[in-house]
Amino acid sequence: MAELEMRDVYASTLLGLAEKDSRIVLLDADLGRSSGTASFRERFPDRAVNVGVAEANMVGVAAGLSVTGKIPFAETFGCFAARRTYDQFFISANYAGLAVKLVGTDPGVTATLNGGTHMTFEDIGLMREIPGLTIVEPADPVSLRKLLPSLAYLKGCVYLRLHRRNAPLLYEADEEFEIGKGKHLRQGKDIALIASGVVMVNEALQAARLLEQSGIQASVIDMHTIKPIDAGLIVHVAQRTDAVLTCENHQTAGGLGSAVTEVLAEAQPTRLRRIGVRDCFGEVGDLDYLKNRYGLTAEHIRSEALSLLEKAR
User: For the chain, what is the mean pLDDT?
Assistant: First the structure.
């Protein structure tokens, strides 16, 4: 399966937007090389600001630029975007009714060798508490390329959870995406696997293939928008299957699993389990080790699905 670096797609798409719209500006916290946006700085040096290792200030500057009518994208590692800037993003950007696009890179286990201090398993939980904020986590290069222009011109603030490294292409180049509407990647009548992000959507697809070997047909949903979540699609797949299993590179508390559970508890009570990190801090390791360490693999999803369906019977 062909792969592209997500940061390259992010940078080239943002650069394309900036070529057409002088309001697009970029801020980073001394991570332009890591985020792949050096090309933006080279092309538009007067519209790119490196604030240094001062992430909270970066969000404050972005808020000021938004007041003047600019469309600021402010990027840093997810641990800093979520934890270190939270109050500034909450008050200076969201409460003020501005339109700051905050980008948090290396979510969850994708922080790998940067270790536990940089491994953000809680960013979605924090961001879901901000009124009116849109939260998006693309699962492949095509979805990132298609969603980014919509996020740029969306009214209000955005939190973009961005995988930086290689990601397999899941969609054809002409696929269309809508903020707030999940994508049905695979149809199945027995169980629905609702996943988000590069790591877990791909693991869910692999798990569906493993389940097929046991005679179980699994639907796979790419829930690229976590807020506002696609409640209609969640209810739809829950009505047509025996169970729902959520899959996320995040704590099971507060993230995608919590959002799906809230929808189903109110609208369609359903047998449900959540795959994710369970009340743990991160640690150092390569991606394969970390996925196994936290139970974020296709085999683990398969095992939980089989257990859930067996209890259902």
Answer: 96
